[in-house]
Every structure is written in structure tokens, then in C-alpha cells.
Design brief:
CATH architecture: Alpha-Beta Barrel
CATH topology: TIM Barrel
Structural class: alpha/beta
Number of domains: 1
Bound molecules: phosphoenolpyruvate
Strand order of the largest sheet: 1-2-3-4-5-6-7-8
Number of helices: 11
Largest sheet: 8 strands, parallel, barrel
Radius of gyration: 17 Å
Length: 250
Amino acid sequence: MKKFLIAGNWKMHKTPNESIIFVNELLRRIKDYKDRDILICPPFTSLYPISQILKDRPIKLGAQNVYFENEGPYTGEISPLMLKDIGVEYVICGHSERRNIFGETDEIINKKVKKTVEMGMKAILCVGEKLEEREKGKTFEIIENQIKKSLENFDNIENLVIAYEPVWAIGTGKTAQPSQAEEVHIFIRELISRIYNKEFAENLIILYGGSVKPENIDQLMKEKNIDGVLVGNACLKVDSFLRIIDYKIL
Ligand code: PEP
């Protein structure tokens, strides 16, 4: 049975010391789950100390970004080899903040996804439309384009997670209605079934991201095609992240 995934994207928050305190408290209070994986994605400077704490513990470690070469003259970049070496299991590729603030294109994201998986980690590919694109009725077209381009010549789909994150819902407090998210998740699953095959599509983990919080997690997780969430703001406090992790499908 596929396990759901609850992932926290810390973005540019928490020093290494703050990260250690946070993770120790999380570990002290987290329950033992059989049906869901828990993932945290701290900033690069916290990855190594956190990787030492998380060894053989029930929380997985992810990075928020990566470069697509293992070494070389790429000032300021971090390689997949470096991440793999310290026990990182997941890498977020193509978050909308990377696309919109740092100019990442689908072509760059495609290279990052491929290299992450080639190095033995799982890639979390983020896709999502902007508000004006949704208002013009272009949501499916945008999602299809992003997925097709980001997955060009990529066949290792077992190591891929897709996160649907409508840009208008990220960090804004505006969550997509569960039915709006579900509609896009169904579209993504059908698209993956067309590009790859039905079995891959059924096993694919599709996360929803965009102002997920304790107040809406249970409703979102009720939807059949939502296999977990990618959480920004609400994963930065232990109480709120624990409540999200502990979602209940009523
Ligand atoms: C995110 O950064 O992926 C995200 C979904 O942020 P927030 O939960 O703050 O909207």
C-alpha cells in the first residue's frame, strides 16, 4: 500500500541551533505512524546537524533545492552528491519561489529532477498556476506544460513525487478548496497515466501545497487523489506541524 507523505518546507527559516531544538522537540512528541511518511526540508546550513539527529529516526530529510552537477565551478551551488552523502532522501525541485524569484525554467528543473533521481534520491516536482492563469481558465494547460517539460526524457517515475501548489495559495492564507485541488490532482494522475502508464499513475504520490494548516488538513486529506501535503508556514511551529502530521480522515 502506498504511504502518504506529509512534508514541511522550512524555506529560509531557522538557524542550525534553532533547527536542532525544533527537531528534538518534534521527535520527542511525534507518534509512530505506519501509513504516512514525515519529511522535513530545512535550509542547507541545517541539513548536516539535522541529518545526524535523524539517523534511524521516523522523520525523513529533504533539501529545498539542488544543482544538477556533482561538482565544479558553480559558486554558491550545492550538489546532489553532497546531499546524498549526508543522508538527504528527497529534493524539492521547481518550487514556485525558485521559478518566480530566481528565474528557474522548466528546462533547468528537468535537469534537477533527473540528476536528483540519478543520484538515488526522490524528486518532489512542484507545479502550479498563477492567479491570472487560473482566472483565464488556463490551469490545466499550465500544469500539463510544466509536467511535460520538467519530465522530458525522464523515466524513473518510481522516484518522483509531484506537488500541486497553486501559486495564488502559497503563503497567502488562501487555500484551494479541497474539490479544486482534487480536480487538478485527478488531471495530473490522468496525464501521468497517458505519458507513462496506469500503474505508475496510481502509485504516484501527489501532494497538495498552499496554505495548508491545522484547520484545513482533515478536509484536504479526505480527497481521494490527495496523497499528502507540502506545508510552508504551518510547519515552522511544532504544535501546528504535529497537528497536520496527525491528520484524521473522518
Ligand atoms: C510552500 O512553500 O510549498 C507552501 C505551500 O507554503 P505555505 O504553506 O506557507 O503556503
